[in-house]
Amino acid sequence: MSDSVKPAKELDVQGIVKRATELNDFSHLLEHVPYAKFIGMAVERFGDELVFRMPANDNNLGNPVLPAIHGGVIAGFMEMSAIVQLMVFMQTSKVPKIVDFSIDYLRAGYHKDSFAECRITRQGRRVANVSINCWQTNRKQLIATARAHFLIE
Amino acid sequence: MKLNPEFFPLTQLATRFVDQLTQCRRLGLKVLEASEHHVLIELPYSTELIGYPDTGVIHGGVVTTLMDTACGSAVVCAIFEKFKSLEISPTLDLRVDYMKPAIPNKPVYGFAECYRMTSSVAFTRAIAYQDSIDDPIAHAVGSFMRISPEMVGEEFRQALMGNETKNKGDSA
């Protein structure tokens, strides 16, 4: 059942980011990444800030009895948020590559909308360090916090 | 891939556990083996999971989900074998190091073990690979909180026990 994929032509990351900035529509960026659609994430810009959103979605649940979002989905959402943050604010020419990702789960992620924001802690020539916070009803009650390193070129 | 599920008596339990998790069904995760020492899970390739559109490589988040699921199942199996009881342990933290991208159009395997358990925390590690476990895509370490078996809930317990309805361990 391997639906074979022909590598698409080189993705023009800078062009896409530039267009998204001009249109002030950053959802445009996520449309290029199938996994972002798979978990149903969205992004909005408030001035200089990007806030990422993952609406409640039955497919993202782990434990269906609680019900709670699968921890891996929360991690994937936060990782994707960090990638977009880097593409927009660091104007990388390629999609940053994940090197490591470390997440601490602080509370159960319930079956409702989740939000994330990122801070680029340090940007070197080859590696960037990003910290990501994720919350649901209250920004001060984080459900998870993470940090990650990405290779940028 | 050669399998010996009959050698690994907890494969059925781990399968039922993973099948209870909606996201894992969406990803098509399949438990190949499970014992009190380890769990091996297969993640099939799908274009829906692509994170790097120019290469077709799957998103790191999918590998993280595979690792979290494999480690969590390893904890369920280890506790079941040791205490004859069912506990669902939430993840406390998880760290994943990515050594190289997963090759498109091929499944990824997640091998996890629960290498240490205390009264309140279970410690796990996992490797994700494609062709050989000696050539890993990613390494992970995670710790899981142990919660009391009463927190599992009757519905979930029955789903996990399948036909083996007599849970001898309830009193343990």
Automatic annotation (TrEMBL), chain A:
Q: Which CDD domains match?
A: PaaI_thioesterase
A GO MF term: thiolester hydrolase activity
Q: Which Pfam family, just one, is annotated for this protein?
A: 4HBT
Signal peptide positions are none
The record places domain Thioesterase at 69-141
The identity of this protein, by name, is Thioesterase
Biological source species: Shewanella gelidii
UniProtKB/TrEMBL annotation, chain B:
Please give an example of a GO cellular component term from this record: cytosol
Query: Which InterPro entries does the annotation name?
Result: HotDog_dom_sf, PAAI_dom, Thioestr_dom
Keyword list (alphabetical) reads:
Hydrolase
Q: Which CDD domains match?
A: PaaI_thioesterase
Residue ranges crossing the lipid bilayer per the database entry: none
Question: The Thioesterase domain covers which part of the protein?
Answer: 56-132
> From which domain of life does this come?
Bacteria
Pfam families for this protein: 4HBT (PF03061)
Q: Name one GO molecular function term.
A: 1,4-dihydroxy-2-naphthoyl-CoA thioesterase activity
Keyword Nucleotide-binding annotated: no
Query: Which protein are we looking at?
Result: Thioesterase
